[in-house]
Design brief:
By secondary structure, the protein is α/β, with parallel strands linked by helices. It has a single domain, classed as UDP-N-acetylmuramoyl-L-alanine:D-glutamate ligase (3-Layer(aba) Sandwich). The chain has ten helices and 13 strands. The protein has helices spanning 43-53, 68-79, 128-132, 144-156, 168-175, 185-191, 197-206, 245-259, 263-276, 290-298; strands spanning 5-10, 14-21, 35-41, 58-65, 83-90, 96-103, 109-114, 134-139, 159-162, 180-184, 211-215, 221-225, 228-232. The strands form two sheets. A nine-stranded mixed sheet has the order 5-4-1-8-9-10-11-12-13, sandwiched between helices. Strand 12 and strand 13 (228-232) form a beta hairpin. Helix 1 packs across helix 8 and helix 8 runs antiparallel to helix 9. The mean pLDDT is 95.
Amino acid sequence: MPKAFDIVGIGVCTVDHIMTVPRLPRRNENMRALEYARQPGGLASCALVAAARLGARCKIIARIGDDDAGITIRDELRGEGVDVSQLLVEQNSESHISLILVHEQSGERSIITRPPTGSPIAPHELRREHIAGARVLFLDTISEATLQAARWAREAGTIVVLDPARPYQELKPLLEFVDVPIVPEAWARAWLPEQPPSAVAERLQAAGAKIAIVTLGERGAVLSWRAGTRAFPAFPVDVVDTTGAGDAYHGAFMAALLEDWEVPRMARFAAAVGAMNCRAIGGRSALPSRAEVERFLAAFPPWS
């Protein structure tokens, strides 16, 4: 039976206030921002928008407040073509907000968050058909609800992709259901500080992941799968803001999974989207379409 959606994501939605600054402010300093943007963000939200711009049919399951930020989150996701029928609104609660300071020269950023005041998604609020009806399930943390969703996904043959927002010891019960963990280098170092990224990827793959990925920012990524372990480079771009680069990589890799490509081709595609998203301020401003990615890749020689 055909799946109702390509990708269903359960996770964080935010509104980001992004300011480009010449440097981080000192104590008691009043600094003027060089550039400002306000746009929705969050791990699951940005990953799904990235995938939707690449042509995937996406649905998000999350909770927002009934404040102005919640309205912005819902409207922007709907405008990107993401199904928001399971974006639940909690009355008299505040949505997740982040303040992001972006270093003008490097594009690196510092993030301050105001967590949401609403309740997390509960298992009884999930519907099995939403999970079983997707080809890919995206998760960013562990909870009773995400564990339930991962179990349903495993039973239905839905591929589970994880972007870990919590440390290994907390995520361990969830990892046994994860087919494609895509973890940042900082997470890998916190888990196995004496091991190189390749060893972390191999450890995750040996534990049951079909494809395990450690992303390394401007140094690319290391992937481990049944054919072995391999490092892949990043693409050079003029970096304006690295916000959302990892989310873009996740969304692109999920879109590539839908194509059933060979792993190196998926890695190249995701690396291109992650790099392209660094060309403008904000986590979504430079997310490309499928045609834009193909034109971008045509300017570089194929990976051997």
